[in-house]
Amino acid sequence: MTCAEVRRLVPGYLDGALPERMSRDAHARMGQHLENCLDCRQELERYVHLSAMMSTVGSNPPPANLGLDIRVAVAQARAAQGFRNHIGRWRNRIQLVVENILEPLAVPATGGLLAALVVFAIVSHQFLGLAMPLVTTADLPLPASLLQPARLETLAGFQMSGIKESTPAGEHGLLVEATVSAAGEAVSYRVISGRMDSAMQRELDQVLLFSRFRPQLSFGRPLSGGHVVLSFNTISVRG
Asked: How far is CA 185 from CA 179, 208, 215, in A?
């Protein structure tokens, strides 16, 4: 093997991951070349030193304002859509009207038509003496609940460090009402009770940003505007 080939394959040789297309004795031939070539052996030693240095490098923690910055960027991106976003909202509203109002109205209309056919069959049988079997229809199933409120599915596992220091014994640390979008995301919130400073607000932004909610449902379709009340204290979190 030439020096150029060996130096190109040194990283894979060091990690034991040489290309599959090479022969099985390629690793042995590279080892033999490294024993006889000082320059290639020094190149291998530099990779070993570099690998040792990289293994000591730790990962940087995310910025403290990462959650808030993401929310601001998302809000700015939505505002930049302008007219197209406005048209999209009207299209969604029309779709919700069609699916939640017009389609449910089709159920009683269909039932009325079937009832009229049954009455016509009975009248024809009585007055005309036709041997026509009577047709009965079963009741159409309706949704168990036309409107289901939003609720918490998964709460992000971030610490609310400021609650323990500012909560008197026997009281709720923080009571928050979150507004949930149709996608199951908290788009806004308001503090119902409790004290909050800037540090606690950043922590609460992170918790709500990475938590998942089930949106408000109407006829099984998700709607925006649902509300979930969250209680934060030193013992538990409820939604």
From this structure: 8, 8, 8
Residue of 67, 54, 83, 48 lying closest to 199 (CA atoms): 67
Taking the C-alpha atoms of residue 178 and residue 210, their distance in angstroms, rounded to an integer, is 13
Measured at the CA of 15, the angle between CA 10 and CA 19, to 5 degrees, comes to: 70
pLDDT in tens, 54-78: 777 767 777 778 888 888 888 777 7
Q: Which residues fall within 8 angstroms of residue 15, CB to CB, at 6 or more apart? A: none
Q: Which amino acid is at 58?
A: G
Ramachandran bin of 58, using left for φ above 0, alpha for ψ from -120 to 50, beta for the remaining angles: beta
| pTM strictly above 0.70 | no
* Residue 146 neighbours by CB distance under 10 Å: 12
